[in-house]
Amino acid sequence: MKKLNNTIYVTQPSLPELDEFIPYLQQIWDNKILTNNGPFHQQLEKELADFLGVPYISLFANGTLALVTALQVLRITGEVITTPYSFVATTHSLWWNNIKPVFVDIEPEFGNINPEKIEAAITPKTTAILPVHVYGNPCKVERIQEIADIYGLKVIYDAAHCFGVNYKEKGICNFGDLSILSFHATKVFNTMEGGAIICHDKATKKRIDYLKNFGFAGETTIMAPGINSKMNEMQAALGLVQLKHYQENIAKRKAIVDIYRKELTTINGITILPMPEYTDSNHAYFPIFVDEKNYGMTRDQLYERLKQNNIFGRRYFYPLISEFPMYKELDSANPTNLPFARKLANQVICLPLYPEIKPACIFNICNIINNAK
Ligand code: T4K
């Protein structure tokens, strides 16, 4: 990826001062432990569990491998109910496990899976539900659990957008059987690339740790065909430094979001998401939804207009996952099954949002949106 000067992208990774990171690198160079559950890896697991208010966390090389492994941890097979309104990695994790995705429509308010549509999609082959807390806004977790309990299904949350989000004063990753996080460069907390699985008990944590290390359960014991998806010491060290700056970064994000909310609420044909109830948000994304009829311009016309002004928003999540060639022939991918997902996918633009973006730039973006027609 080549970046152009004077261009505003949807995000820009937060990084600490290099000086702050150097002593950690020195330590790695001195002790020559580069990976395989080294000291920084262990320290980051401990600090993150405390910070996120979760019992057990296992670090990964990225969020996608965490998802792929999470399905193996619970021995998920057959069919899994999921959402088409997400990043493609959500459904790819099923593909990699030879599991059939069954798409269910979303609820229009936040773009998360609609729990009331889940029951109709359950078949004798269904073993789990894989919802996504899209943009960091919590799914209807109580209702999803209720359905999972009735039908004996597992729930794995793709919480890739949810670092640091609390729901009803609990870390959001406490819900479901497992949750996965992403620490990719574009996320609110990054280790350049990285991810994690959150679980509730020690035995599961042990199984996850085996599976991410080829299945090794001892020097000569392989418990399953695991993969190599370990986080290395440089990533873990960066995570330790990043964590110190997290709150400050979220406060800066909030200030940006406050401007967007104030400036964009009154534009005819532009919808923004409400603030979710009982939630401490991480302000990960700022999506707007363009209603062509009322706004007087299509989403793509506005997207292009922003680009002409060097502002590169992103259409997360367009196209729907169910429209990609490897999934579009599935019965559940039929567009008539997914009206709200299609609507949001056709209307969304995620606007630039990151701690270091200047308020003047946000006012400029709002101004362009206000005067584009
Ligand atoms: N589940 C969900 C719901 C997810 O959203 C994701 C990832 C995953 C699972 C999988 O987690 P990981 O395996 O990635 O840990 C980006 C990210 O690559 C992806 O992590 C993320 N979701 C997705 C929503 O967005 P792209 O293709 O849009 O990224 P890219 O490279 O175009 O970056 C967007 C902008 O960010 C660039 O225009 C400029 C800026 N940028 C990006 C990078 C990578 C930088 O300034 N520096 C950088 O290093 O997918």
UniProtKB/TrEMBL annotation:
The modification N6-(pyridoxal phosphate)lysine is found at residue 187. It comes from the Bacteria. GO terms for biological process: polysaccharide biosynthetic process. Pfam families: DegT_DnrJ_EryC1. InterPro entries: DegT/StrS_aminotransferase (IPR000653), PyrdxlP-dep_Trfase (IPR015424), PyrdxlP-dep_Trfase_major (IPR015421), PyrdxlP-dep_Trfase_small (IPR015422). Keywords: Pyridoxal phosphate. The active site is at residue 187. GO terms for molecular function: pyridoxal phosphate binding; transaminase activity. Belongs to the DegT/DnrJ/EryC1 family. PANTHER family: PROTEIN RV3402C, TRANSAMINASE. This is dTDP-4-amino-4,6-dideoxygalactose transaminase. It comes from Sunxiuqinia elliptica.
